[in-house]
Amino acid sequence: MARRRQLYEGKAKILFEGPEPGTLVQYFKDDATAFNAQKKGTITGKGVLNNRISEYLMTRLAEIGVPTHFIRRLNMREQLIREVEIIPLEVVVRNVAAGSLSSRLGIPEGQRLPRSIIEYYYKNDQLGDPMVAEEHITCFGWASTQDLDDMVALTLRVNDFLTGLFLGVGITLVDFKLEFGRLWENEEMRIVLADEISPDNCRLWDAKTGEKMDKDRFRRDLGKVEEGYQEVARRLGILPEAGVRDMKGPEAMQ
């Protein structure tokens, strides 16, 4: 098993030094967290499924001209990505009322919104990832006005494309979270889509029954969490041929 230098470990992924300058290896864990890591658990096979689902969606987005950090999948749990300077913001798109939007504003869960809403959250676990406004973002230098314009334009394209893609397989894209990074090439910078797109950071409901097929099954103790993730992969036509099985990660160098 390859020995690589570990650079970062988050709640759902580990980043290792890549084989070439400017690259990283992103490893998907089975660990699951909710409510700012107050609830923790394991979803068997989640890392394998999220790796495949994110690969598929990032590849499809690249085909329509959305720049991403994704290069290629390496194995069941790892993918090669470009090293980017992560912008410390979570960009949340809401198409249907659910989660914190419903609880904050008293809108019944499941009510379709008059139009899609974009919200910003400051990436800071200690503060609980608070919601922020554009004024906070530009004032504190987390992103420039041009950065935000680029992020919003990409976010709207991603939402339009993924909404149609999921609807085509009988899934409603309720809401989702995106992260972006700055990619430097030949002293030129551009904003690219980073992190992952999977049932971990998307709310995905069956278009007919409203059944949840995402991490809300873990958050709300609904059971059959693994089955929900597997159903998303099955509908997208990418369930691993050999089925979901456990794979250990690469050894980290001390």
UniProtKB/TrEMBL annotation:
* Domain SAICAR synthetase/ADE2 N-terminal, chain residue ranges per copy: 6-235
Q: Which CDD domains match?
A: SAICAR_synt_PurC
Pathway annotation from the record: Purine metabolism; IMP biosynthesis via de novo pathway; 5-amino-1-(5-phospho-D-ribosyl)imidazole-4-carboxamide from 5-amino-1-(5-phospho-D-ribosyl)imidazole-4-carboxylate: step 1/2
Question: Which InterPro entries does this chain map to?
Answer: SAICAR_synt/ADE2_N, SAICAR_synt_PurC, SAICAR_synth, SAICAR_synthetase, SAICAR_synthetase_CS
Q: Which residues form the signal peptide?
A: none
GO molecular function terms here?
Answer: phosphoribosylaminoimidazolesuccinocarboxamide synthase activity
The EC number(s) attached to this protein equal: 6.3.2.6
Question: What is catalyzed by this enzyme?
Answer: 5-amino-1-(5-phospho-D-ribosyl)imidazole-4-carboxylate + L-aspartate + ATP = (2S)-2-[5-amino-1-(5-phospho-beta-D-ribosyl)imidazole-4-carboxamido]succinate + ADP + phosphate + 2 H(+)
Record family assignment: Belongs to the SAICAR synthetase family.
What is the official name of this protein in its record?
Phosphoribosylaminoimidazole-succinocarboxamide synthase
What is the source species? Roseomonas nitratireducens
Organismal lineage:
Bacteria, Pseudomonadati, Pseudomonadota, Alphaproteobacteria, Acetobacterales
